[in-house]
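Lab meeting minutes (informal)
Scribe: AK
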Amino acid sequence: MKVRNMNIKSLILGSAAALVAAPAMAADLPVAEPVDYVKVCDAYGAGYHFIPGTDTCLKIGGYVRAEAQFTERFARADNKFEIWSRGLVTVTAKEETELGTLVSFIEIQGDTDASGIEMTKAWLSLGGMYAGYITSASVVDHVGGMYLGDFDLGDQTVGAIGYNADLGNGVSAHIAIENEIVEGASAVVGGIEAGQSMPAVAARIKVDQAWGSASLGAVVRQVNYNNAATDSDLGFAVAAGITGKFDALTAALNAVYSEGALGYTAWVGGEDALAGSLSDVWSISGMLKYAFADNAYGLVAAGYGEYDGVGATPDYDEWQITAEVGYTPVKNFTVKAAVLYKDRDSVVAANDLESWEGKIRLQRDF
């Protein structure tokens, strides 16, 4: 009996010791750190998320495009029909600072009919200041769909440092120094222009209102000949555009004039200058776009331009007309079809051109 009582006593004491020791042992176990899950950032609109552990909001977007294109063939080696595709990805990062919103933007794309993948935009901004590879500050682009955008001004990507000022009531002003855009041969010796010795200066003022928008843009660049005996010139381009909204109908006009800065208007092919003389071009384009429904539209657009050159390219005039329809059957997926007629009359009859083009585009945005 005595032995039995001792065993019971030992069992009770052992159990009590275990209960006392258990919390101490549990306190020694490692505790998992709280998980910092990705959180939605709604400060800049839909699609942004906080980078864990930071105040930076990140958004990833882009599109995948497939296009079938028919083009009149002028040489046996040319493709008359082609199917190609493009993948484009954008990454935007934003956060607030005591100096304003800090933004960085990257755009990368690759085409199946081009060589490799390229960085098509890369810029940063703080408040109104910006720097990087970005669309020219001179851009005036009120007219265009899949075709006819070439009659714009400055719709090219350049290295730039600039400032964008929000003046209130939908009015903004842009000014920048930029790498110049050179078109064709511009020199006396060797057929090329001398190296860039000063940046181009580009500027634009734009108004965005409920009725539509209007903009005025300009760029000035140095035409630097590689013949030291020929003094440099100043080339320039200026453009104005307006868009009006009338319920389901949108109407737009664009006008461009340039001397020695042909590269800022993409429809033309020729030389900026030669031996102290500058080529000049002008163009006008217009568009009517009608929304049949929230997810369907049709447009017609036309443009006319003249090239008065001083280089090897003979003078010519050209007009283009296009018709386009678009339909978005589901969110983020659009189908478009367009045709283009182009007619060029040159002072050299052999350079005359008359052609038809057509394309069907499928695009998924994300």
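Next up, CB showed the second protein from the same session:
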Amino acid sequence: MSTEDIKELIQKFLEGKLSEEKEEFLLSWIKKSETNKNLFLSEQENLQNNLLSSTDRRLEMRWRSLLKKTQNTEKHQKGKIRLRRTASVAAAFILGVLFTFWASETRNVTSALVTQNISTPLGAKTNFELPDGSVVWLNSGSKLSYPSEFGDIRSVKLTGEAFFDVKKDKKHFVISTEYGNVEVQGTSFNVKAFKNEVFETTLVSGIVSITEKNTKKRVTLHPGQQADILESKISVKNVDTELYTSWKEGKLIFREEYLPSAVKRLERWYNVTIELDDDPRLSKIWYSGTLEMESFSEVLELLKVTAPISYHYNEKTRTIRIFYD
């Protein structure tokens, strides 16, 4: 089948016009090779650009249908993925989460265990169950690796941000990040470990211990506390945990957050690039509020009417540049 034929199949599927037999063929074709995956991701990108300021519930339902079929054919994978919409571009990002999950499984040649690698593209979230019954919510632009079966220690590796609801067990649960380790037995908490950003662990319930990677300094958190790591220095403070965990419910909460920090969160949330003009006044603007189902175009207008700024959007590169008025 030619490339154009495949593109036509993808388009028909998105429109809900593909037969069940053709859907199964498309699913098998996508999983066959990297080349097929890349073509599919290219079509995803085209769709993503078209959906910047519109919603398409029907399209999301079609992808949920395909996801369900994927799970039925991948019974050896224990983590059931459930995708949540993120504002107006959810359907396109669901493709990314789904496809990353298909392509991510890698087998360790020296072991019978399989390493599961779950990644979420920018603008998407996913939640799934680990082999021990613990539940993970993975935020946009993040990756979690874990074995298909845990040994004496329940060990996972995180890049980015995730909320964990860890099932109580005598075996310790350890999250490895580039900043250090978080160790628990049974608790719920949020870990943010994005590269070149401040590391944060926010505890909702239970008790967790954090060990800084370089100094090996160890601190223990109690509910309502947060540990930060910056330049190998670890500190603990009391916080409103909702501000740091609401993302898993599809909400972004800002409380007197300065524009440069808010921009980083918006970039991951909506899968866009935001550039601030070289004007020091922009860094002094702060925002408070909650975003839930707003499209990115609506968010831009909200920013504009609540502060002296203007912006320019480049549709080809999905880049927004913000200026001080």
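CB comment: The first strand starts at residue 82 and ends at 84.
No objections, moving on.
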